[in-house]
Write a structure and sequence with these properties.
The chain has one domain. It has 4 helices and 11 strands; from the N terminus they run βααβββββααβββββ. Strands 1, 2, 3, 4, 5, 6 and 11 form a 7-stranded antiparallel β-sheet that branches. The chain starts with 29 loop residues before the first strand and ends in a 5-residue tail after the last strand. By secondary structure, the protein is α+β, with helices and mostly antiparallel strands.
């Protein structure tokens, strides 16, 4: 008997695997167990094209146990952003990846996050990951306009990379426009609220928004380990919206034979 290797949460389902309801980060980012949908069924169908794409990355979710979370925000629109994590018997043998499926698009973006419990190096600035996120941004009908929009956009990108608990570095960013006169918008986040003299991870995200009509895009992302914070940084909470992205190397499902 084949074990269905994904996690779904849906009433009246005969098979249900290791699902937990959880909300990550803040009110602007909702992370919840995946529901049974045609899209999820397609990902787990051994005969399907999407399963073939996942196997090229080494993911056999029809033969192994995986949990699945869906990321929702005001910035995902009608697109689907899923994060899969393997259910391993040992803590040092876990893998995870994200999937981005744009509405009415033949492309499936697969973003490896970590393998054997080790995070993929250069994840935040990988051209493939940036391309995927920018593809998502191009599908949206509007661009961010308020400071809260930008915060949500940055948090969505980090959630796509597996960091849904990221907090804004600047406690005043909810009221401050992050863009300069040239259309470059810089955001900074930490993996947690920094404490005095304790090291933390800092992400710097640079978006470009040349004008109001062209789609916003992420141009560059950087990760640094900061030795310690001398002053306490307050996280932004209760903000609407979030968004994510990555760049290059997508799979055209419409052309697969």
């Amino acid at each position: 008997m084949r074990i269905i290797a994904y996690c779904v949460l849906i009433a009246a389902q005969v098979l249900q695997l290791h699902c937990q309801s959880r909300i990550g980060g803040s009110a602007e980012l909702l992370v919840k167990p995946c529901k049974e949908t045609d899209f999820l069924k397609g990902l787990t169908d051994p005969r399907g094209e999407q399963m073939g794409v996942l196997r090229t990355y080494g993911y056999n979710i029809d033969r192994e146990l995986w949990s699945c979370d869906e990321i929702e925000s005001n910035w995902t629109g009608e697109n689907r952003v899923l994060v899969f994590q393997s259910i391993a018997t040992t803590s040092d043998d876990q893998s995870a990846f994200s999937v981005v499926q744009l509405r009415k698009s033949p492309y499936l973006w697969v973003i490896p996050l970590f393998d054997h419990s080790r995070e993929c190096p250069g994840l935040e600035n990988d051209p493939h990951n940036i391309a995927a996120f920018n593809a998502l941004l191009r599908s949206l009908p509007t661009n961010p306009s308020r400071p809260a929009d930008w915060s949500g956009l940055g948090k969505l990108y980090l959630a796509l990379l597996g960091h849904k608990e990221a907090v804004a570095i600047d406690k005043n960013s909810a009221n401050r426009n992050p863009c300069n006169s040239g259309g470059e918008c810089t955001l900074a986040f930490a993996d947690r609220v920094p404490r005095a003299k304790e090291p933390y991870v800092r992400w710097t995200l640079v978006f470009t928004a040349a004008n109001g009509s062209a789609p916003v895009r992420i141009a560059y992302a950087k990760r640094d380990v900061v030795p310690g914070a001398e002053s306490q940084v307050e996280p932004i909470s209760q903000l609407p919206g979030v968004q994510l992205v990555h760049e290059s190397g997508h799979a055209d499902l419409s052309r697969r034979k």
